[in-house]
Specification:
four-stranded antiparallel β-sheet, Aspartate Aminotransferase, domain 1, single chain, seven-stranded mixed β-sheet, Aspartate Aminotransferase, domain 2, alpha/beta, 2 domains
């Protein structure tokens, strides 16, 4: 039996996903398929590494050792054919913190920052909370696949954007941008002198027919003008360890980022974040391959279930991530009505589409990174809510 079939009780672990549903959705008896973490244990090697560190028993100040950067370098080369230098690596407690730090490092209040909606909510939050201006070049839904409106993208860049937040693979749409698409993005950003901040946190969860390309790996010009964010949190379900890596080849940009971290009082990661990140990248590949196969089965089951029971809902076929973007617009319900049906009738917690900005209206996001039995329970509740 697959290790991913194990059902683990996450209550009394301070789980946001399972224990904060009432705070967020107003009801406590909901089946949670909303926030982007998995209901799976990480690779056993990660658990063992953390146990060994706990048994040592002394938890003084730590630094990120060279062995951690070596594990990241090896991982990126093997998984994404990207050879980096350890000197390019910096560390943050998470990708959202890194986004905020980058916004502070490379823009000033009142500057324009570009994104593509519908997109990961903190993109909007970090721009607005730091008193920058959101410039949106919405993605275009062509049938059941999202595309970039390059004419609109260039027009947005002409407004004088200083920074572009790229989401690759895209959350919530699940697109894995192609090499040609990334090169076109890069060409336009270079033309209009706009730095690229590439959130690649989902880059390791890619379905078999697709290939992730880090935009910074495509040529030297893009490498020099891109800040890349990665983390083991989505890949290995380690979000609670709070560890991410920032890859900046350009020394001037790297120093700017480091100086901003110092102003914020950030100097290192926590002990278990370091241990978990290194063990995951060093020993987690076999586990990841099994995970992707399991997620593929869950994705196929979900799409077939919808086709059989809720044909009015179109499921965008994700190329990466464990998140599916459901188009419910044919139901004719408002977003408020849709939310009420899911919560009151289905007892199901999903992410509402409008949370992801313009273009999210009429959509919901569902997380399929759970044991098959839990997925079936959630889909039956979806059917009960919307049929």
């Amino acid at each position: 039996m697959s290790v991913f079939n194990e059902r683990i009780d996450r209550f009394k672990t301070a789980s946001v996903k399972w224990e904060l549903t009432k705070d967020i959705f107003g009801e406590s008896d909901l089946w949670p398929m909303w926030v982007a973490d998995m209901d799976f244990k990480p690779p056993q090697a990660v658990i063992d590494a953390i146990k060994n560190r706990v048994e040592h028993g002394v938890f003084g100040y730590t630094f990120v050792p060279s062995s951690t950067s070596e594990a990241i370098n090896t991982w990126l080369l093997k998984r994404h054919q990207w050879k980096i230098n350890s000197s390019w690596l910096l560390y943050c407690s998470g990708v959202v913190q890194a986004i905020s730090t980058a916004i502070h490092s490379f823009t000033k209040e009142g500057d324009r920052v570009l994104l593509q909606s519908p997109v990961y909510t903190p993109f909007f939050d970090m721009i607005e909370k730091n008193k920058r201006i959101v410039v949106n070049s919405p993605l275009r839904l062509d049938g059941d696949r999202y595309q970039i409106d390059f004419a609109g993208f260039e027009k947005a860049l002409q407004e004088g954007c200083k920074l572009f937040l790229l989401c690759n693979p895209h959350n919530p749409a699940g697109r894995v941008w192609t090499k040609d698409e990334l090169l076109k993005i890069g060409e336009l950003c270079l033309q209009y002198n706009c730095l690229i901040l590439s959130d690649e946190i989902h880059s390791d969860i890619i379905y078999k027919k697709f290939t992730h390309k880090p935009i910074a790996s495509l040529n030297d010009e893009l490498l020099d003008r891109t800040i890349t964010l990665i983390a083991p949190s989505k890949t290995f379900n380690l979000a609670g360890l709070q560890a991410s890596a920032v890859i900046i080849k350009n020394k001037e940009l790297r120093i700017q980022f480091q100086e901003q971290q110092k102003r914020q009082g950030v100097f290192s990661l926590n002990t278990f974040g370091i241990i978990g990140m290194e063990a995951a990248y060093r020993y987690g590949e076999e586990w990841l391959e099994e995970l992707i196969d399991y997620l593929q089965v869950n994705k196929d089951y979900t799409m077939q279930f919808l086709a059989d029971h809720l044909p009015e809902i179109t499921c965008i076929d994700a190329e990466g991530t464990y998140l599916l973007w459901l188009d419910c617009r044919k139901l004719g319900s408002s977003d408020k009505e849709l939310r009420n049906l899911l919560i009151q009738k289905g007892k199901l917690a999903l992410e509402p589409g409008p949370k992801y900005g313009p273009g999210g209206e009429g959509f919901v996001r569902i997380n399929i990174a759970c044991p098959k039995d839990d997925l079936i329970e959630g889909l039956e509740r979806l059917n009960r809510a919307l049929s």
